[in-house]
Amino acid sequence: MSSPDAAVDTQQVCKLLDDMKSSMVSARETIQSLKEKGPSYLETKDGISLLSLKHQVLLSYLQSLLLVSTRRAIGHSLSSRDRPIEPFSNPERSARGTDLGDMVDHMIEGRVVLEKVKVLEGRMRYQIEKLVKASQQKEKSDASDVINDPLAFRPNPHNLLDANDDEEAEEGLTRDSTNTDGIYHPPRVAPMPYVPQTSAKTKRQQRAPIPTSLASVLHADGSMPHVESTSGLGNTPSLNHTSSRAKYLKHLSEFEEDQFGRVMMSKKDARRRVRDEEALALGGGLSGLGEEGKGGGRRRGGAGGWEDEFGDVLRDVGRGSSHSLGGDGYEELRQRGKRGGVLERSRENKKRGSDSLVIDGEVPQKRKKSRFETERKGIKSKR
Amino acid sequence: MADSAPVTLRTRKFITNRLLARRQFVLDVLHPSRPNVSKEELSEKLAAMYKTDKKRVVTFGFRTAFGGGRSTGFALIYDDEESQKKFEPKYRLVRSGLATKVEKPSRKLRKERKNRSKKFRGTQKIKGADAAKKGK
């Protein structure tokens, strides 16, 4: 060994030793603080809290991972297991062995636990965030900053109780003073108009309909993976199979498969079922018995979800061409000059009288009498 | 008869029904370029798949999904002929040829005859009913 190399090596060794010493000191300090907090801090009588569970599980997962990789490097087989005798569902199951297969089992268990914890934490996220914010706020702001304090405006049920007691006391007092004559005085209530509830339909109409953009949120399950539709059309309500008819058909087919036989249906129902299943297969757009489709009425949309998805575009497309026949805006004027049809002319004649001269178009003509009218005149003259 | 396209059979909800001595399942048939697969052909294929006699296989309730190419129905495979004759409904036995159809006069005719015979008593019933019918 040459002397400069030796010097470098010793320096490195000394540095390493110092690092080790400082890390050991810091670890010792944390252990001391834990010891001082006492056994109550580490008590698990009521179970471990969800948040500390995550740390423990992750730590053991990392340990198992490290062991698996090192042992595999040595050459131990992954399938060697030392299973305990009891089945998994038994809560008194003894601990697993220390073979590689057991480590893998341990990791799988840890991963499942972590995923479930994540879901639970998602549900409690709002509360945790509020508490964290509250604790942070107490450090920063003063007591006068009431608006920023998230826990400042919580409801106080005691206020409501006191109000009730006061009112009763007051009413009791007034009653005693004025109602000693024994006559019944009805309570003084402000007059309100009576609006009768006509039917269940109006109740449904009065409740505001759920906006279609948010309708899918009701059925969205955060734990399930996101489903893409194969047709590429979006989140229209018909495509979510939210119509009662679509749900009924789905339920019917599942029932038939469970019961191992087809359901007896009348011809009309069977034909309707086939037609509705076709419509569903083409992309939705069914409306239920009591439901109205987007346009109102059953057969407006045509096949599939065509009208639902492109309804506004199609309505725009048709608007220009249906304005006028000629297209130059003078059509109405031209139509005014023309002679009306037979029906219109007969209606005009009825108003003016049957014998008067009728001016239709440019030439005034004497009106041709029909056979009925001549006979009618004949009867009168006979008498 | 040669198949124009290969037919795929898929079984779902397979149950071994020991009480009725049969195996029952939901059958999905994929027939891409054919209109429909006949029940006899299906029972032949199933008999080959499950190594039974083709007469033990019963198929029914097939409905083609919209667009063609796929139909769903039910199939049963009985263990032996006696259990099949015991448990199958009459109309399906007639379909598979194990029973003959009972030819009865129409329901209305039967009821009319019964009502006519109500007017008579004893052995006159038989004579009376037929005579009235002929007189009519």
TrEMBL record, chain A:
Residues 331-354, 371-383 have a biased composition (Basic and acidic residues). Residues 137-193, 284-383 are annotated as: Disordered. This is Neuroguidin. GO terms for biological process: maturation of SSU-rRNA from tricistronic rRNA transcript (SSU-rRNA, 5.8S rRNA, LSU-rRNA). GO terms for cellular component: small-subunit processome. PANTHER family: NEUROGUIDIN, SOMETHING ABOUT SILENCING PROTEIN 10-RELATED. The lineage of its organism: Eukaryota, Fungi, Dikarya, Basidiomycota, Agaricomycotina. It comes from the Eukaryota. InterPro entries: Sas10/Utp3/C1D. Signal peptide: none annotated.
TrEMBL record, chain B:
One of its GO terms (biological process) is translation. One of its GO terms (cellular component) is ribonucleoprotein complex. Residues 107-124 have a biased composition (Basic residues). The keyword Methyltransferase does not apply. Pfam families: Ribosomal_S24e. Residues 102-136 are annotated as: Disordered. One of its GO terms (molecular function) is structural constituent of ribosome. Keywords: Ribonucleoprotein, Ribosomal protein. Residues 127-136 have a biased composition (Basic and acidic residues). SUPFAM superfamilies: Ribosomal proteins S24e, L23 and L15e. HAMAP family: Ribosomal_eS24. Belongs to the eukaryotic ribosomal protein eS24 family. This is 40S ribosomal protein S24. It comes from Rhodocollybia butyracea.
